[in-house]
Amino acid sequence: MKHQVKVWDAPTRLFHWTLAASFAFMWWSAEQGGDWMAWHLRGGVLIAVLLVFRLLWGVLGSQTARFADFLKGPASILRYVRGELTEREQPGHNPLGGWMVLAMLAALAAQVTTGLFSADVNAYIYDGPLAAAISSETAEQMNSYHRLNFNLVLALVGLHLAAIVFYRVVKRQNLVKPMLTGYKSIEGEAPSLYFAPVVIALVTLVVAAGAVYFVLTRF
């Protein structure tokens, strides 16, 4: 018998969809150029806050949001590939999906970092907030890295979307609905999961925003 089990807390879901919307806007605003680059820079700061929040939430947050819960070794990955790892054992991210999450966060962190230090080589108006902290040559190089790394981020996004389609069509599993509602249909006895209080998420968000503000105003 299947049970509807809460696997994703509200902070994790809000982070996911806010990040997705922010990434789409960043892509669009970069393509528009011109005065939209001012909003592109603001969007970059927002994503920086989101990433710091997610790193902290991966340690302090709910069970399925913690890195220790979904970053598994070769043995667990092999069990998953063989179909031996049940959803009750791994109700959140599966072992492969967990490493995809880490890869995505790392690529986005690189994208934000290079953007913060990038020089505006087109209009010379909208430099990254930290571009003045390095030489102009290095800032221009950062711009090149920023553009190059975007292709990696885009490839990871494409792989993520392909995995969602694969699970929906081949495995008959809807991965989008649980990230919207928080609930997932799991066979057998419902697992007992820990969910962090909302106040911890709010404090974590404030700390993340404060850390980004400190970096942007001190360097």
From TrEMBL:
GO terms for biological process: respiratory electron transport chain. Residues 7-182 form the Cytochrome b561 bacterial/Ni-hydrogenase domain. Keywords: Cell membrane, Membrane, Transmembrane, Transmembrane helix. It holds the Pfam family Ni_hydr_CYTB. The chain crosses the membrane at residues 12-30, 36-57, 150-170, 191-216. It comes from Crenobacter intestini. GO terms for cellular component: plasma membrane. It is a multi-pass membrane protein. It is found in: Cell membrane. The keyword Cell division does not apply. GO terms for molecular function: electron transfer activity; heme binding. This is Hydrogenase. The keyword Lipoprotein does not apply. SUPFAM superfamilies: Transmembrane di-heme cytochromes.
